[in-house]
Amino acid sequence: MTRLPPLASCVLALAAIPVAVRAEIDPSKYAAPVKVACVGDSITQGHGAGGQPWPAQVGRLLGEAWEVKNYGISGTTLMNSGDSPYQKQNAFAAAKASQPDVVVIMLGTNDTKPQNWRNVEADYRKDYADLVQQFAELPSKPRIFLCYPPYIAKGGNWGINERDTKAQIPLIAALAKDKGLDVIDVHAALEGKDALIPDNVHPNAGGQAAIAGAIYTALTGKAVDTAAQ
Prior knowledge:
The chain is an alpha/beta fold.
């Protein structure tokens, strides 16, 4: 009998895990603007977005009752064994020091590079749990949202690929279920929209708008009013 490798077995077993989404965030319950820390890699930082990264677009959609800050750093990995771990960046310390009310994490794209992905079995789950825990332990007790990594178009680029991007989805779903966290399906927001991803990895301004829309809806429970944009 052919046996599946451990990760493949995990993907199949967890693929149908439902992820509960809690109530939307009500800024009227906060004494000051709701502080949102956007954690991620070059996609969050805005590479190829023409100055329109998704955190900036989300900030405009949310309005003055929210304060959205971009802590994205190009090339970073979720796994601490990766070639540029996010947890070793100054941006990580800055994100925690901001004492956010909300943390949106969108990492995993660079983890699909072969030199990083080889460590997924040993490191992915524990390093993601550690990242989450460090934010959860902040005095501000932020609400934490985990994003499925963005869709990778065609054959990908730089070793970044769609196959291993999709393999992360059930792992993130399981972690979110265990920790009682919210999930944002950024992958679905971009899937099949190859024209919005010119280099197959980094969304342009339109692709970033699709990400922003998914995140806005997750935070507020409202659809984006495209007529007002």
